[in-house]
């Protein structure tokens, strides 16, 4: 099945680590955004007639979708639903930040069919949150998770690992607090300091030194605590109470198609990957441009499925390996240290997931 | 028809690097109309980029110019000479082609080691020398002191030395006037059998190897059958001519002339610098003295970073060799690096130039091993073998002793650096020979030193210890028995042959430690821990460890931007491709040079 991604690029404040496409929130731009999304969708399905129109997952991401004024997401979804079908029982996720996820917002989202909230908690240390440029504190974050759970959403909470001031205790406390607050899904993203972010400047000024070894320790502490509390790691950066895995997120790693709408949104349709130019003003004035990232051959697509499938707990099936022209026996002989193969699925051993890029580069690519 | 030699002047310019040789050459050419101002690129004689960047000249291109003086037209042949210690022999052959030399001395720097070396070479070749003081436009110029220096240090009268600024074009006429009035004309004999000196050669893809020659006796023209006296090879001359600096065909080149000769010669190794050309039918009795085969002093393994480009490297070396008889190479196989070549060079500069040309002109990525000198191995059976690759060293049980090449080094320095330089020389196993106060501001230190120490970090250390003021010159001075050992480097327990080196026993511990530390920094962390060991004959003398990588995975995917992630993985893959697999360990190319470069004090 396929997924629908809707990008809402607006943020109240730009975070210190973020290199996603986002723009400062402006009421004027936001007002015109729903109609622009509809226009984008019309053009999308005209341009790519083979693109899927039936979805079992929707992901409203950002930016910060929860900054949009009331009614706008409803407008957008309402219009889009005249073009696409969202399956009964589909997973409909929305990203949000604790400070803009109010009771009112929760109710609004619930009403328009959102059933899963992914909240950017990032840390439960106020000191760290301040450095990251977040505009909420630890208490607000925990409250937002509780609120989401109480409204009946499936809740996911994000944390960043390897950020300034973070200790293993912080990480453990995060997992416990989130579990107690009702989050049944956790995403832990190890920090990558990208050029052009405030954090990059901090590093340049010598105020913070990223340390992969430390990040690895924090990751291990996170994983251990999460497992103790009943979460299972189903992908390098994602943990869930069994059954609460994010269907949409997995599509990225398993080679499913997804339709991306919005300024800067990425899509995969068949063998083609492309994105819309990340320029909100142009987008709103219908001067969208779609850029092809790559057109893959069948063989490349098959290889890609293996490369990214190995990030997941489910691994890659023997059939998928055969498609990609990978000789499992030979691979196990060369690299049995890093992989398990049960006759049906090939997986990277748990302890090597954190170095899996290197393993994939060495043995699969 | 015999030519009137009275109006010919063959001369060269000798100077220390940076003292303005090329600039003066350009000015002289401007003045004689050899180059129109539009054409006059800066430092015209330096035809190769790399040399131009380094501000030194290696290629010798004689230029024929005409200049009227006192109602007479003179033919001036300016012969350019290389200015680096690696090319002493080439310089000496070029000097041989001249009757006189302009000696440029920088008005603020004064006489330097190289100035002296070149002056002595010129005097050895009986050249008349005109001292010229350059860069008088600089505020730091001290022409009177420099004049005194020339008189005291070199022993040349410098009272009438023109004070010039080649850069500003000041005093150039005076230089030419002195060239004409003070330098002697050639005194060859047109009626004698042909006797011509090859003092350079280069390869032209249409005409073959072209010899740059100075005719001493007789004459040579197209159609003549010539004989190379050192090799005995004969060729039919197809063309003779001279450079203005573009090539201009001539009827003949006769006694006193400088020019070029083409004879469909396929290889520059048939036009050996220093060889004498004569006529096959009417040979001269005696060759010109002083011919030497160009002998490589420094050796290094040169491998394509991408093993698949071995043939490209081979072709590139063949092409360079066409133009550079001093370049030596032979195929070599390394366990670590695969197929490549052991190359021999005149010195470190020559090595760097060749390596850079291979990378730039032939677009090759190279892995080069640390330079080595040629050692003599005397076996227990009493045989002597020469090895230039440490891995070629026989089993030590078959070795009676090892000998290493020794040089006599002359270092000129202001007195305040004498202490630290002596310390450096001591550290480099130098034997003190002599110290001379040339004047109050300049000291000559003479040392006998192993060549192997000179090529390892010596020059850079000398420059940094003397804040750039000291200069070095050296000449070969035979071989000496020495307590040398072979040091191996083991990566994850396996010897990496490309990192082995021969070293003096007293130096082995420090170098072993330094190399292990450096390798630890350049070898990236991998999936497992990698011990790095330096060992002599199986005994480990230094050890470092590269820890296993702890994190190597990118977490987030930018809202479905899988392409970006794939590109990052591919980049990682590319990075690994540029590394060499040594056993189970991936080693980046620069690791092989770490043996040479280590942060000297």
Layout: helices, strands, pairs:
The complex is a heterodimer of chains A (365) and B (601).
Chain A lengths: L1 E7 L1 E2 L11 E2 L2 H21 L6 E9 L9 H9 L4 E12 L6 H9 L4 E7 L3 H7 L5 H13 L3 E8 L6 H14 L3 E6 L7 H7 L7 H17 L3 E4 L2 E3 L6 H8 L3 E4 L4 E4 L2 E5 L3 H5 L5 E6 L2 H12 L6 E2 H6 L4 H8 L3 E3 L3 E4 L7 H8 L2
Parallel strand pairs in A: 1-4, 1-11, 2-3, 4-5, 5-6, 6-7, 7-8
Antiparallel strand pairs in A: 8-10, 9-10, 12-13, 13-14, 15-17, 16-17
Helix pairs in contact in A: 1-2, 6-8
Chain B lengths: L7 E7 L6 H12 L16 H6 L8 E7 L2 E8 L8 H9 L3 E7 L6 H12 L3 E7 L8 H12 L17 H11 L12 E10 L3 E10 L1 E3 L3 E4 L5 E3 L2 E5 L3 E4 L1 E3 L3 E8 L10 E4 L18 E7 L5 H14 L4 E7 L3 E8 L2 H14 L4 E3 L6 E5 L4 E4 L11 E15 L4 H10 L3 E9 L2 E9 H4 L3 H8 L5 E12 L1 E8 L2 E2 L5 E4 H18 L7 E7 L2 E8 L15 H16 L1 E4 L2 E4 L13
Parallel strand pairs in B: 1-3, 1-4, 4-5
Antiparallel strand pairs in B: 2-3, 6-7, 6-15, 7-14, 8-13, 9-10, 9-15, 11-12, 11-14, 16-18, 16-19, 17-18, 20-21, 20-22, 22-24, 22-25, 23-24, 26-27, 26-28, 26-29, 29-30, 31-32
Structural overview:
The complex is a heterodimer of chains A (365) and B (601). Chain A starts with a strand and ends with a helix. Chain A folds into two domains: 2-252, Aldolase class I (TIM Barrel), CATH 3.20.20.70; 298-365, Arc Repressor Mutant, subunit A, CATH 1.10.10. In chain A, helix 3 (103-111) links the parallel strand 5 (85-96) and strand 6 (116-122). Chain A is globular and about 60 Å long. Chain A has 365 residues and is of the alpha/beta class. Chain A contains 14 helices and 17 strands. In chain A, helix 1 runs parallel beside helix 2 and helix 6 packs parallel to helix 8 (212-228). In chain A, the strands form four sheets. Chain A has a nine-stranded mixed beta sheet with strand order 9-10-8-7-6-5-4-1-11, sandwiched between helices. Chain A has a three-stranded antiparallel beta sheet with strand order 12-13-14, with no helix packed on it. A three-stranded antiparallel beta sheet of chain A has the order 15-17-16. With 601 residues, chain B is α+β, with helices and mostly antiparallel strands. In chain B, 24% of the residues lie in helices and 34% in strands. Chain B has an eight-stranded antiparallel beta sheet with strand order 10-9-15-6-7-14-11-12. In chain B, strands 20, 21, 22, 23, 24 and 25 form a six-stranded antiparallel beta sheet that branches. Chain B has a five-stranded mixed beta sheet with strand order 2-3-1-4-5, with helices on both faces. The longest helix of chain B has 18 residues, at 505-522. Chain B is globular and about 85 Å long. At the A-B interface, strand 8, helix 8, strand 12, helix 11 and helix 14 of A face helix 13 of B.
